[in-house]
Amino acid sequence: MGALDWDHNAFYHRTLLRRLPAHCDRVLEVGCGAGVLAAKLARRSDRVDALDRSPAMVEAARRIVPANVTCAVADILDHPLPEAGYDAVVSLTTLHHMPLERVLPRLDRALRPGGVLAAIVLPRIDPVRELPYEVAGALGHRVLGAGFAGLRASGAGRWYAYEPTHAAMPMVLDPELTTRQAARRARAVLPGARVRRLVFWRYLLLWHKPASGPA
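The chain above was modelled as a monomer; its predicted structure follows.
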């Protein structure tokens, strides 16, 4: 990592939090990593269930999360989830590790009517259709990186510095689906789902579960 590199995942925490209700009874985080987002979710929810397949990440998360967060080593594809148990499901750069057509129905069933699914996901690079995002991301990464590095050097805070556990985090650097492909698959499972490409090599998947079934 260079001096101007910074944590894009941390940058998008606020994007996810803005999509959630002001307060939730119970939230599920899929792929909690080192627990930084789970700790923020804990301020907005009575209970947070934070899952990750990496024992090292879960161990790190347990060291920083408050008492209303339960961290567990689990694979979301086979971990038992409560039916209609969550007001919100949140995920940060995890869903590209698995087939959307398998994981999204499970998250649908776990959401209460009226609940929200908000996920930041890595897309496969699609330079023909998404060239403006690629250019903006490359330039913005350097410009913001210089600004964040200066703020950190001045003692003004962490400003999206990587967590010490970053190197141990499992990563898929070549996701299967482009943003458009992911949008088609998501909408086939979750009608009304919205998928929007973001600047820094991610897309936002947002879905509000209908408050009630057909009349």
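The two ends are 55 Å apart (CA to CA).
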